[in-house]
Design a protein that fits this description.
By secondary structure, the chain is α/β, with parallel strands linked by helices. It has nine helices and seven strands; from the N terminus they run βαβααβααβαβααββα. The protein has a seven-stranded parallel β-sheet with strand order 1-7-6-2-3-5-4, with helices on both faces. α6 links the parallel β4 and β5. α1 packs parallel to α9 and α3 runs parallel beside α4. It is globular and about 65 Å long. It starts with a strand and ends in a 7-residue tail after the last helix.
Length: 264
Amino acid sequence: MIYRLLSHVPHILFKPVYDLYERYLLEKVKSGNMPKHVAIIMDGNRRWARKLEKPPWYGHYFGSQKLEEIIEWCIDLGIRTLTVYAFSTENFRRSPEEVNALMNLFERKFKEAAKDERIHGHKVRINVIGRRDLLPENVRKAIEEAERSTRKYSDFILNVALAYGGRSEIADAVREIVSDVLAGKLKPEEIDENLIKRYLYYPNMPDPDIVIRTGGEVRISNFLLYQIAYSELFFVDVYFPEFRKIDFLRIIREFQKRQRRFGR
């Protein structure tokens, strides 16, 4: 589903209407079947910054602020797992200046998360999935600090896909399975869909109910390829920093109206 939102119209003109509609949607959504796992491709930060004639890091910074809002929305709604696509393996091909700015932002945000009272108050566990060996040491240390300080929590799970690629994840899983077969730890006939899930970056992670992509692009871009076989897909025509709670609620409301058959 693609929502063509009027992002070019000043929202302040419609704020009373938006507030009323948001309250209405919130009431409807909370009375319906809530998704357990939402995944988001956070797209459009750079284009949003370009529209404002700002450098790319400006968009990424405000994108990180938007993610903090979304975490609060999920906690408020009782959505227990949120997975976000922060940086792909292909993103390393961007300019060194942009990659360095992003890495510095990741380091700062993970360090902040490790000490954030909201994270600890709501018992949010932070996991990072991806090829960590590709990340600078300072980012890896910040990730380890955030994961270590939240590892005992289970009320809410935040998965951050960083240096991540869906094909890479499957290739890495296959490599480990082959290694275990050769070592005699596994028999080839034991390999099935459930076993493969045990070898993914986050073993046995529940499949996302919803995948949201902001920014107007209609593709998956190598995100959670194994896990989203039966996820409901929503493509939103606003840049990530402009993504509003009302947009989020509309998507969940549409999800609640769908009949999920899982191939049956």
